[in-house]
Design a protein that fits this description.
Blueprint lengths: L20 H12 L2 H14 L6 E5 L5 H10 L4 E6 L2 H13 L7 E4 L12 E7 L8 H10 L1 E19 L4 H15 L5 H11 L3 E12 L4 H16 L5 H17 L4 E11 L2
Parallel strand pairs: 1-2, 1-4, 2-3, 4-5
Antiparallel strand pairs: 5-7, 6-7
Length: 276
């Protein structure tokens, strides 16, 4: 067994070049529909201080899960804009917004976080939710977020920290090979969450605050199953584990789920700072 496999190309860096972008869109919407993810978003948007009447930008908005929540908070007197470099995800975002029953309607625009297509000081709050860990040059994205935020406005970021992914599986060594091996090879910065407060201060923001959100997945639903199966498939491809070991690991998780004993948790960390 070797661990010298090359770093994977994270598909979320280039959704439109994937064989089936709609599949990734369905994953984002499935995750967004989980009740614990809805609670996470409410907690983070409260930390960010989103209120009625604000102009808010959601960088890397994907299918618009967060942007729709922002639109509901800012109301018809505010502006909620989502920007993303994927035409496929933006098409889903616009379609779901048209089909929604809320009077507060976000708008969506094509653009890259490395060069946001907005004038400086355009927004009261600029957000990036589970984006920076995917981006190799994420400090440049932070710089752009600061640029488009007005003086006195806020920049708020939220990321997972895959150094905190916990699974209740008997074979701990095998779990670590799969979980840690995937994180180190897949994400640009798998421990991004714990770095956010420091990075906001380094970007020149004042009054930086941070908050931890512990997300527990008590149900082995379709999204969680897909997430773990994809990790096993890549760990097998990278020869971190054998095919037999990967199957045994998944079977042990499925058995725990059948008994009602499935447990998985992951820490998310949010940070918000004020533009001077």
């Amino acid at each position: 067994m070797t661990s010298g496999a090359p770093v994977a190309v994270d598909p979320y860096r280039a959704i439109d070049r994937q064989a089936n972008p709609r599949w990734f869109a369905s994953l984002l919407e499935a995750r967004g529909n989980q009740s614990h993810q809805a609670r996470l978003r409410r907690g983070f948007l409260s930390l960010a201080g989103i209120r009625a009447g604000m102009r808010v930008l959601d960088v890397g908005c994907g299918t618009g899960v967060v942007t729709r929540d922002v639109a509901a908070r800012v109301g018809d007197r505010g502006i909620a804009v989502g920007v993303d470099p994927s035409h496929a995800l933006l098409a889903v975002a616009r379609r779901r917004t048209r089909a929604g029953d809320s009077d507060a309607r976000p708008t969506f625009r094509y653009g890259d976080g490395l060069a946001l297509p907005f004038p400086s000081t355009s927004f009261d709050v600029t957000l990036a939710v589970t984006v920076l860990l995917h981006v190799p040059a994420s400090d440049r994205v932070l710089g752009e977020m600061v640029r488009v935020t007005r003086p006195g406005g806020r920049v708020a970021v939220l990321d997972q920290d895959f150094g905190t992914l916990a699974l209740d599986v008997p074979d701990r060594a095998l779990t670590r090979r799969i979980v840690d091996g995937h994180a180190e090879r897949f994400y640009a910065e798998p421990w991004s969450g714990r770095t956010l407060a420091r990075r906001l201060r380094r970007a020149g923001l004042a009054r930086v605050r941070s908050q931890a959100f512990v997300v527990v997945d008590p149900v082995y639903d379709d999204y969680v199953r897909s997430m773990l199966e994809r990790r096993v498939a890549l760990a097998t491809r990278w020869r971190l584990v054998t095919t037999a070991d990967g199957r045994r690991w998944l079977r042990s998780i499925e058995s725990a789920a059948d008994r009602g004993d499935f447990f998985m948790s992951l820490n998310y960390y949010g940070a918000v700072g004020v533009r001077r």
